Write a sequence for this structure.
């Protein structure tokens, strides 16, 4: 293992050299305008969208496809008509560029480079076109009550959405450019004074070690910084919702915004966090608690129901009530496959249907679901291929797996179902117990950024349970999660629970005189 | 890494490839629903097992016609030696016989008189057997006759017996109760007896209580004794008492019992045990043929007294009949054993005879709580109503 890792490091070094990023940083701009332009043009391979435009006393260079042409005309070229005068430049972001590496970087960020004759430096004005999709409702985490804005593919918009919610100077944003080729912007968000510096340092370290050619989506990052790369369970949460990110930051967690994807990352994530929806905090706490419990119950159904059906009908018939057993027996009469095969067949079909429904364009997807309902539901039973109870089991399991609010967590549960069905079919309930034990051992060994995955149940914490097993009212959620080691653990001052006003004759009289 | 994966492969192939699982598909198992055990005068045992036929069951539950298609199949095996019969039953079955869903165990009268010593071990040892199987006795008949009839209101006949046992008209004795009662010091089991109705087509009906002693049937309780025994066992539910009260003349008032509590008490007086039972019973009026307006608390008081008297009589009758049979079906000995173990030690060896000589006091506290929707009868003119 150790050998392989060093080999990989060596390779990445070569990779970086290939891209010449380090070397370019060494090359300073020269005093010759033409030399500077030529070497940059060479670097870009004389790309047609790399354009130059002369002005009195110098030359302007930019990539026209990624700059805002209107701004370029109005605020750069118009001002430059009389030569470069820095005090006249109406630019928000103005940088001095002294080496080629920086020049290349600025060009790619959408800057206009202003070269002057006989100057060993250039000025960069960021006027990148900020074209982005409009802010829409998040597709993956819809709520009935709650904010409807979701992240877009533009990291600036995303940061703005978070800033709008956390109006504090303590919001810390650290920027990383990850990917030797893609140079994708990744921003590490935390709140000074709330987030533990250990967490931020750990996340920073993990981000700094990433060597990759390009980042297309935040999952690239996720897989590099996960605590258990081979585990099925997600240890880093992804979300499209700025309110989720903001709430996580307030809890003392850290967030990562990744450019060019609406999915931001939050760490650490616990098992219970994976079962929570943002709406838990926007609906009444009793309702939220009840819904959480429904999710717990259906989590087990999603994981175990087909296995329990297989185990009981093939090994432990004595466990069913007699009437139920006999009706199951009469339904299974004449079905050609053993319960185990039946269960595996139906579950695989169900997963295939779900996948087809997701992947296909929406109108076709509906057709798939209609055919699927007929095939899985009625036809298979009437043709005598599948027994009717199995269809009920599969559909309940399907519904159960959709109650899990985090999609990637639900997928983990769905995949785990298959080995458990196999164990149930070979060892009966004993097999299911073995599966649960293995699962428990695995879950309790998981860490997410150092936080035990099953916290606050194991290790146990009363304060933590207030927001895991139940959802207490906001005025009772006094402390931040203990294991996040926040420097200011106190969150909500105690004693804020609303009470009916004390009605005494005196206070009534006093109230009367006041008004 | 390779070592681990090798181990995993070995474990997986051991689990999946060898096929040495005790998997049995639900349609390879024959579920016994009831068993009838008989013995004829020549000493031949007969075991009849009623097995569910799932296909026929699904047809009958789906509302299709099921003429001549009872959802059960009866398998019969005979032999001199009881122990071999189970193996013999399997030789007639295409599916593995499974007794974990047996609801009812019917003992024929001659078999019950012969004694259940040989039978019970199989039922208590094999883990497949449910201890909650109801145990009943077929009075004056072969047990298999009870299982051979049609009982269309339930999906299969044995379900009918089970539901009747649950109604509280019989003792509701399960195998577990029977085993407890026959091994408890100073107690003997009593179980419900069933017989077939005289009219055609025959169906089974509850016909009293059988009294066992040392696992052998020794006799039956008759008339009020049946009700009395059920009162002492607190098993009676919704039973109707027909009462006369002084103000009502010759007319009857029917009272249905609701809650029954029976508290036994034993104390030693002059070195001899004295047993007393106190029954607390609640009732509601079901029928009033007299002209009385039952709203009047005076009549309710009379009703209470009449009900209490009837209950005492029933219990006394039950105890009297048990004393004649020399079988302690009410568990008086157990009370003595629990509260005065020293006295019990003196009496236990000769308890059947001692039980027959004991004195029992029965008191009752009856409360009629409801008179129904009417005070007097509806159809008699109000001038005739006795307020």
């Amino acid at each position: 293992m150790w050998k392989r890792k060093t080999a990989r490091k060596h390779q990445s070094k070569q990779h970086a050299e290939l891209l010449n990023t380090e070397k370019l940083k060494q090359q300073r701009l020269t005093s010759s305008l033409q030399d500077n332009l030529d070497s940059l043009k060479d670097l870009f391979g004389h790309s047609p969208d790399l354009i130059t435009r002369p002005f009195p006393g110098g030359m302007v260079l930019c990539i026209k496809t990624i700059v805002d042409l209107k701004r370029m005309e109005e605020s750069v070229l118009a001002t430059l008509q009389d030569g470069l005068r820095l005090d006249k430049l109406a630019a928000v972001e103005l940088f001095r560029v002294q080496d080629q590496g920086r020049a290349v970087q600025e060009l790619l960020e959408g800057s206009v480079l202003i070269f002057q004759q006989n100057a060993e430096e250039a000025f960069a004005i960021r006027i990148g076109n900020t074209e982005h999709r409009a802010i829409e409702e998040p597709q993956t985490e819809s709520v009935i009550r709650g904010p409807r804005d979701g992240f877009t593919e533009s990291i600036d918009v995303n940061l703005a959405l978070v800033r709008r919610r956390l109006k504090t100077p303590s919001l810390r944003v650290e920027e990383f450019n990850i990917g030797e080729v893609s140079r994708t912007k990744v921003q590490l968000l935390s709140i000074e004074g709330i987030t533990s510096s250990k967490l931020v340092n750990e996340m920073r370290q993990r981000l700094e070690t990433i060597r990759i050619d390009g980042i297309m989506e935040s999952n690239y990052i996720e897989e590099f910084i996960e605590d258990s790369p081979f585990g099925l369970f997600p240890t880093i949460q992804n979300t499209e919702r700025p309110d989720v990110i903001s709430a996580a930051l307030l809890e003392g967690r850290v967030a990562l915004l990744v450019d060019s994807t609406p999915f931001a990352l939050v760490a650490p994530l616990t098992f219970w966090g994976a079962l929570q929806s943002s709406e838990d905090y926007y609906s009444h706490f009793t309702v939220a608690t009840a819904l959480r419990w429904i999710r717990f119950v259906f989590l087990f159904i999603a994981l175990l129901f087909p296995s329990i059906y297989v185990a009981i009908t093939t090994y432990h018939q004595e466990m069913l009530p007699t009437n139920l057993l006999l009706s199951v027996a009469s339904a299974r009469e004449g079905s050609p496959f053993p319960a185990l095969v039946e269960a595996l067949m139906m579950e695989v079909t169900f997963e295939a249907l779900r996948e087809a429904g997701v992947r296909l364009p929406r109108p076709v997807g509906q057709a798939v679901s209609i055919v699927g309902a007929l095939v899985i539901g009625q036809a298979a039973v009437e043709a005598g291929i599948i027994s009717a109870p199995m269809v009920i089991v599969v559909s309940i399991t399907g519904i159960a797996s959709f109650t899990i609010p985090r999609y990637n967590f639900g997928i983990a549960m769905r995949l785990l179902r298959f080995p458990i069905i196999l164990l149930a079919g070979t060892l009966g309930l004993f097999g299911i117990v073995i599966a649960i034990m293995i699962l428990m051992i695995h879950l309790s060994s998981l860490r997410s950024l150092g936080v035990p995955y099953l916290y606050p149940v194991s290790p146990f914490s009363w304060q933590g349970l207030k927001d895991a097993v139940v959802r207490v009212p906001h005025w009772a959620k006094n402390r931040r999660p203990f294991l996040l080691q926040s420097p200011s653990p106190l969150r909500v001052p105690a004693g804020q629970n609303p009470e009916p006003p004390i009605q005494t004759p005196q206070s009534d009289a006093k109230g009367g005189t006041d008004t | 890494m390779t070592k681990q994966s090798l181990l995993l492969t070995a474990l997986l192939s051991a689990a999946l490839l060898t096929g040495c699982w005790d998997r049995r598909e639900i349609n390879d198992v024959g579920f016994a629903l009831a068993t009838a055990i008989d013995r004829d005068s020549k000493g031949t045992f007969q075991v009849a097992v009623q097995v569910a036929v799932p296909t026929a069951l699904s047809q009958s539950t789906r509302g299709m016609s099921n003429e001549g298609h009872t959802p059960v199949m009866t398998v019969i095996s005979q032999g001199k030696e009881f122990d071999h019969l189970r193996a013999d039953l399997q030789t007639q079955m295409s599916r593995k016989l499974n007794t974990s869903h047996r609801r009812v165990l019917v003992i024929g009268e001659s078999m019950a008189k012969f004694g259940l010593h040989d039978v019970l071990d199989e039922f208590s040892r094999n883990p497949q057997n449910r201890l909650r199987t109801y145990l009943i006795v077929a009075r004056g008949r072969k047990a298999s006759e009870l299982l051979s009839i049609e009982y269309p209101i339930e999906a299969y006949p044995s379900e009918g017996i089970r539901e009747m046992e649950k109604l509280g008209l019989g003792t509701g004795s399960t195998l577990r109760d029977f085993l407890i009662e026959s091994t408890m010091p100073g107690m003997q089991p009593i179980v419900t007896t069933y017989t077939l109705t005289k009219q055609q087509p025959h169906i089974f009906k509850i016909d009293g209580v059988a009294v066992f002693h040392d696992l052998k049937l020794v006799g039956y309780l008759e008339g009020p004794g049946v009700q009395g025994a059920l009162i002492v066992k607190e098993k009676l539910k919704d039973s109707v008492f027909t009462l006369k009260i002084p103000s009502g003349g010759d007319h009857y008032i029917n009272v249905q019992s609701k809650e029954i509590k029976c508290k036994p008490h034993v104390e030693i007086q002059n070195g001899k045990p004295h047993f007393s039972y106190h029954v607390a019973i609640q009732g509601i009026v079901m029928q009033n043929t007299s002209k009385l307006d039952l709203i009047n608390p005076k009549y309710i008081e009379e009703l209470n007294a009449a009900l209490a008297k009837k209950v005492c009589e029933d219990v006394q009758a039950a105890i009297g009949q048990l004393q004649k049979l020399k079988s302690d079906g009410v568990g008086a000995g157990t009370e003595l054993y629990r509260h005065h173990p020293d006295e019990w030690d003196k009496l236990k060896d000769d308890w059947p005879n001692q039980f027959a000589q004991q004195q029992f006091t029965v008191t009752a506290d009856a409360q009629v709580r409801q008179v129904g929707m009417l005070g007097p009868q509806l159809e008699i003119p109000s001038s005739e109503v006795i307020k």
Notes: Confidence is low (pLDDT under 50) at residues 1-7, 511-515 of chain A. The two ends of chain A are 78 Å apart (CA to CA). Chain A has 18 helices and twelve strands. Chain A touches chain B at residues 313-315, 317-318, 322-323, 325-335, 338-340, 422-423, 425-428 (CB under 8 Å).
